[in-house]
């Protein structure tokens, strides 16, 4: 079974978007380099960011997102982002009317059902969980093995928190990866299983 990784670009003060769901400069590092990160050619990063990010992307089998993110992105028009095989959407609502049932998107109710479906689909590959409310719920429930952050040098002051509504202390191990890219700091932490 693959590991479960919570991931997003994040502001220095811990936000994945502003109050209006706008990412501001959080994804600028994905277009400020000269090395294509995927086949589209629209995502270009520094060599350092490529060497860190591409191997991780290649390990992802499934991404779990909340319905809010799915709606904001218009469901990526039925094509999972970054070449990922499947997306599991945590929602209390059915798939959108007219949604192609053959699209590799799976609509489930609750984080436990989402994790079970994602693990089934991912096999021994990584299950990625988008940071924010759903990611925070999974983190608080002890379902996350690793936290990855692409920290961008901006302060939002308020907005959508990386860990959602987590309101209790949780320990992470010391970062086992710290990579400085161009206008981004890539961090990777293992989630501590020690009592906080």
From TrEMBL:
Give the residue spans that cross the bilayer.
none
UniProt superkingdom? Bacteria
- Single GO term (MF): 5-amino-6-(5-phosphoribosylamino)uracil reductase activity
- Every copy of the Bacterial bifunctional deaminase-reductase C-terminal domain together lies at 88-174
Q: Which Pfam families match?
A: RibD_C
Among the GO biological process terms of this entry, one is:
riboflavin biosynthetic process
From the Swiss-Prot or TrEMBL record, give the protein name: Dihydrofolate reductase
State the organism named in the record. Amycolatopsis regifaucium
């Amino acid at each position: 079974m693959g590991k479960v990784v919570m991931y997003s670009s994040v502001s220095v003060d811990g936000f994945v978007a502003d109050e209006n769901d706008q990412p501001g400069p959080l994804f600028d590092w994905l277009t400020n380099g000269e090395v294509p990160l995927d086949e589209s050619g629209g995502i270009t990063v520094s060599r350092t960011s490529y060497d860190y990010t591409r191997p991780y992307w290649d390990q992802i089998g499934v991404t779990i997102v909340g319905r809010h993110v799915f709606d904001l992105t218009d469901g990526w028009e039925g094509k999972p982002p970054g070449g990922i095989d499947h997306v599991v959407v945590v929602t209390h609502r059915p798939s959108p009317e007219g949604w192609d049932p053959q699209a590799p998107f799976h609509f489930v109710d609750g984080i436990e059902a989402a994790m079970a479906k994602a693990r089934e689909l991912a096999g021994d590959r990584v299950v990625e969980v988008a940071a924010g409310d759903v990611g925070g719920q999974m983190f608080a429930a002890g379902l996350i093995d690793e936290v990855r952050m692409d920290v961008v040098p901006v302060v939002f002051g308020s907005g959508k928190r990386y860990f959602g509504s987590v309101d209790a202390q949780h320990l992470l191990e010391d970062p086992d990866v710290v990579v400085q890219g161009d206008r981004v700091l890539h961090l990777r932490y293992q989630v501590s299983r020690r009592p906080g």
